[in-house]
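Standup notes, protein team

Yesterday: finished cleaning the Marinicella sediminis set.
Today: diguanylate cyclase structure.
Blockers: none.

Input for diguanylate cyclase:
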Amino acid sequence: MIRAAQLLEYQRSEYNVLNRSAMWLGNVALVFITPFAINNLLNGQWHVAIAALVIIAVFSFNTFTVLIWKTYYSGLCFFLLSPAMLLFIWFSIPQQGIIGVLWSFPALVAFYFLLPERLAWLVNGIGLAMIFYLSWVTFDHGLAIRIIATMTLISLFTAVSVRLINIQQKALHQVAITDFLTGLYNRNNLTLVLDEIIENNHKSTASNHLMVLDIDHFKSINDQHGHETGDQALKSVASIIRNLVGDDGVVFRLGGEEFLVLLEQQSWQEAKSLAELIRSTMANSELLPGFSTTLSIGLSRLKPNMTRADWIKESDQNMYQAKHHGRNQVVAS
């Protein structure tokens, strides 16, 4: 999948939630855990203090990487932070008694916000097993059973809550970045994607291209056949464009009857051939029983020192030239 599509997919993944979670948990760790870590260190509780300091260090590192590089290292949390937090539980309950149990509450909850879902389940299962054993050998069995039941319920409630949050976030983001009628990406994230492409353009020798496509005489479709038929025509056009572009680009609906295709890592000749293929396929397709339509297409390659506004403007101008010169054609520059 090309970089622009990867960017859009990443934005609606659970790792976007993890990014923000890691940053805020890191800030909380610095403020609240540091004094207790220092106190444990001064009182000779080395195991608890060292585990706490490792937790603080990993939280701080992830906060830094999220703020500076917008990157979250879930592998670091799994292989370093999770063992440190489990060790913290292992040593704190025997040494601190019920206070150690209280420290286990935020540890279990934090796993669900720091790790992908299945890894969070795994680490929580290990943590609960440790708490079960340590409580059983540290406290009287009546209290141990209450602790185990409470911690299990907290873990389950948190797992369900985080799963619902992730599902809702993905659904909301899907609504935010896609067009409800055609299922294509809408223009909400277009600025971000184009800026990313322009910023990284100097790192690649491959060409990047914008294709603006407009349905010819679309108003007459609505006027003669009604808006419901017009919507069906839009969905058919979107489907044809998306199928022809495939993994070679990302397709957006800009609004109305206008579409945009972003092509990365394509030669100029490949981009022009694809534009012509879309034009000819549309001209020879029956969108709905009884009628067909054509497209006017403007194609522009990303040139040195070109801004996002310049790139879109040139593609638009080429599309309007195609309209001016008779429609059903491709103008490229």
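Follow-up from PR in the comments: The chain has a mean pLDDT of 85.
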